[in-house]
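Worked example 4.2. Below are the chains of a multi-component assembly; read each line carefully before continuing.
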Amino acid sequence: MEAATHARDNPLANRLMVIDPARGIAHGTVGELPAWLRAGDLLVVNDAATVPASLRGTFSSAPIELRLAAPTDDPVVWQAVVFGAGDWRTRTEHRPAPPPLAPGDVLRFGDELTATVRRVSERSARMVTVCFAPDGDRFWRLLYALGRPVQYAHAAGDFALYDVQTVYAGRPWSVEMPSAGAPLRWSLLDSLAGIGVAAARLTHAAGLSATGDDALDALLPLPERYEIPPETVDAVNRTRAAGGRVVAVGTSVVRALEGSARTHGALTAGAGETDLRVGEGTARRVVDAVLSGMHEPGTSHFELLTAFVGRGLLQRATAEGEGRGYLVHEFGDSCLVLAA
Amino acid sequence: MNAPRILITGASRGLGRALAFELSRRGARVALVARHAVDLDATVAALRAAGGEAHGLVGDVGAKDDAHRIVGAAAAALGAVDVLVHNASTLGPLPMPLLLDTACEDLAAVLETNLVGPFRLTKIVAGAMALRGAGTVLFVSSDAATSAYPQWGAYGVSKAAADHLMRVWSEELRARGVRFLSVDPGEMDTQMHADALPDADRATLARPEDVARRVADALGDAARFPSGVRFAAQEVL
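Applying the procedure described above to all two chains together yields the following structure tokens:
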């Protein structure tokens, strides 16, 4: 499938493929989502705002780009991936490697912001843990002043920070937009509420989708932080008890909900971290359906969908998407996958 | 109940500063926005010295690219925003000109800071509030929004438009539990008042600290000040 290079003016006109093991494959638009859901269903969205996670700077005068990958409990300590010269216009796999880095090395961004390497991953020399200075409010001021959204070579131009936020974004936890929610608009959420489909939220720190390093990409998604509010646990339990379906908006929401249920034995409110890799044969305890972008075989997102429907049906869906010109990536078309 | 998390624009002086102190004294965690780091940092330091949690965010409410920076950094510092106070505003060129003498660009600049800027910030903050089913957005208005004073055209129009923006927003998000208010603070002894009316008798002007106390009372009283209401600070007793 071709990549969407930018957001459509009216994302509610994005295509929606409904993949239903009982009825097969149907085609519509995102704006028609209410036709596929029913009173008592619950939409769960990821309300993480997108951080300007790409910082261009230097290491001992050589140009580098640092892409934040995951926050830690300390606001100025981040896991990050380092690239050599260049920017998003070059495909990640063609980007030159960064200079070799060791603990104690200092990366510089602008006149004031520095990141000191604390640790280099044994799995990839590109993966580091860094500690920024200054800390506190000045860190956030500088990150927002200097950082740009992480983006990839399929894009038509530079994204602004407002291009990569969902309409309900809150805490800045994600280093890439939780893009399954990108086409949602409040008019649609109000229409859904009108037919008895409520929306609940959780926050999940969506990570990088590619690093250009095969060894590192094979590890994606990395363990990701999430936080599930008590009212969302209540809403999910009420929904399931009444026979409604829990519809996760995005694979990050599937991972948070199923990861919490697996860790605690049942969906539990609070913060956590999940390294759950959802795929064929994963026993789902919470999520009945997923609204997601279009994904191609071979990606971890595609694998996640095999926990909902058979691989054969998903492959047929990919072929139909191909034939009908569905678009992939953050501003692409959507699919609603209902469980068998 | 957790401490409310409050974002205040134009918070390094005048009513914004007084509100930051009053809300902080009442237990709020506050994030302050101002254009100039020196005044802002001094206000934040004073709030912290008084025992409060305060964060300073440098930004221009009238600049499109600053909107997500302001809200993002505030949400990073506070976790979420429960109350957004649109206090920053500009009078435009001084002395304030007659409409016939007002450059079109100056009118547009006043609207950008006093109307479009708050619209942008609200758009970013209120979506998360609607999803949580709670939150309050307060616009600081003026009696120039309802009375037609010569030479107060650009400012008055921007405030009247912001009041109406507040009302429509209130209708659209009432069912989602987000509350919108606007307040006419009355004439206060502030730098802005001195800029507008340098010859005023300061003894006749309200102290921003007293007005801030009344505004904080109204914010905390959703029964008396429900969504969609525009009130005068003097009515809050």
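Take a moment to check your reading of the output against the notes. Chain A is about 20% helix and 30% strand. Chain A touches chain B through 27 residues (CB under 8 Å).
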